[in-house]
């Protein structure tokens, strides 16, 4: 009972409601919504995360024959760098073949050895990230990437020395009750809300395996993330905290 009373008080503080209670059953008999026009700004919104996309990471290595950039003629080259470049384009091709906006693929690391302007690459190393809210569709992309890696190696007469799936995690679905309470909290705070899929990796992906999970997003400047220009206003951060606090209060009363 003490916890429920605390949650109700917290709820009032967050959304600006003063209440008079009949303590026999804790039902409010009077509610006055205090409007503070200075808090209204645009956009007033929150993101209610419905699911976290399933991520997978791949490591790929090709080995060819090096040599001097001027001494080895083009017909006689076994260029590991070009094999890597071709595979990078194949990643993009296979992702787009899914015809889903939720399928993404990125070659975030591409290294050439020995790494000199006048030396034909004898080895290449790629690290590939692919994600999708649909696990089977993502796995199809991985299979196609592996098939392309083998095809490219044969065509360019280089060796595919490594094709390793580093991780292949399933997607995580947010708890339906948590989603409902986050949406309700946003509405009570006069915030619009948008149902969203998170395509970024979060600890919640793993917490969902052991407990109900939910996440709240707030607006960022131009949607930027993981770059220096990333910025959220103090107002948006404050609104995010309010939505989170009110959601927790609601869940404690459920």
From TrEMBL:
It holds the Pfam family Peptidase_M20. One of its GO terms (biological process) is purine nucleobase metabolic process. Keywords: Hydrolase, Manganese, Metal-binding, Purine metabolism. The keyword Manganese applies. GO terms for molecular function: hydrolase activity, acting on carbon-nitrogen (but not peptide) bonds, in linear amidines; metal ion binding. The keyword Ribosomal protein does not apply. It comes from the Eukaryota. Its cofactor is Mn(2+). Homodimer. This is Uncharacterized protein. It comes from Brassica oleracea var. oleracea.
